[in-house]
Amino acid sequence: MLRFVLLGTGSSDLYPSPWCGCDFCAHARESDERNWRNFSCALLYPDVLIDCPPDLPHSALKANVELYKVRHLLVTHSHHDHFSTDPLLLRRSVLWAQKTLHKDVLPLPDLPPLTVYGNAKVNERCKSFLKEVGSKYDLRIEVQKLKPFEPVKLDERTKAHPIKAQHCRDEEAFLFVLERDNFAIFYATDTGWLSEETFDYLRQFSIDLVVADATFGLAPSTDEHMNLEQIKELRERLLCEGILKEDGKFVATHFSPHWTPKHNLLTKVLEEQNIIAGYDGLWLVLA
């Protein structure tokens, strides 16, 4: 059995946007908590985190997951809603307490080393952050640069495949296929419609779960983000080409508030297409 949890499902605007008074944002404030979306990130439970937005601690608390178990952080790209060093700095208090407090007074679980994987910009930012705090704190963090279509073995059970996203013009953004045991998960956000090079690479997999970008909801898509219509087309193509298993799950995420209806309406729009409307704290179980 494999568990994958969506910690956040919002776009860079958050949902509802704190600066917006549109109908979607107004209704979200007054209704189901599944409409309250943090920045998008996810966890292959218990130890592989995808993206580290500034509100990660709140998202983890909401989903009831323990970040101290995370050993690997895969970063899609350097944009502020996908990579912030602020949550990483919070490791300092635990490591300091482990060194200075008597274990009989306050036993603490071990905080394992963390490896951050990302593109050149992510590497540069993370190394600069570690150098800045290094004179005072050893956060037990290492950095590893990723290259598109060059898989990385995370542990004996898990392999990560960085795949080109259609998103940034000034850096390489990644999507990820995660293989663990006999399962494969495709995490595909932020991105516009996938390139043929990406489809070619995906044909080697038989995927159990796809989590896909649906940023623009009912509005037209762009070359950097998809909408609801495109993710329907994406699911159909992945099925037709045998990349997504017939019984595989397909989940939409990364919703912008201004073009995406609230959760109960979104569910009705998507369920006819066998697409799950993602929400913060959604646990997806593969068995």
Describe it.
The chain has a single domain (2-286), classed as 4-Layer Sandwich (Metallo-beta-lactamase, Chain A). It starts with a strand and ends with a strand. The strands form two sheets. The protein has a seven-stranded mixed sheet, covered by helices on one side. The radius of gyration is 19 Å and the shape is globular. The chain has helices at residues 23-29, 56-63, 86-89, 91-100, 120-134, 196-202, 228-240, 263-271; strands at 2-8, 41-44, 48-50, 72-74, 114-118, 141-145, 152-153, 158-164, 174-180, 183-188, 207-213, 244-253, 276-277, 282-286. By secondary structure, the chain is of the alpha/beta class. The chain contains eight helices and 14 strands. The mean pLDDT is 94.
Describe the SSE topology.
Blueprint: E1 2-8, H1 23-29, E2 41-44, E3 48-50, H2 56-63, E4 72-74, H3 86-89, H4 91-100, E5 114-118, H5 120-134, E6 141-145, E7 152-153, E8 158-164, E9 174-180, E10 183-188, H6 196-202, E11 207-213, H7 228-240, E12 244-253, H8 263-271, E13 276-277, E14 282-286
Parallel strand pairs: 3-4, 4-5, 5-6, 10-11, 11-12, 12-13
Antiparallel strand pairs: 1-2, 1-14, 2-3, 7-8, 8-9, 9-10
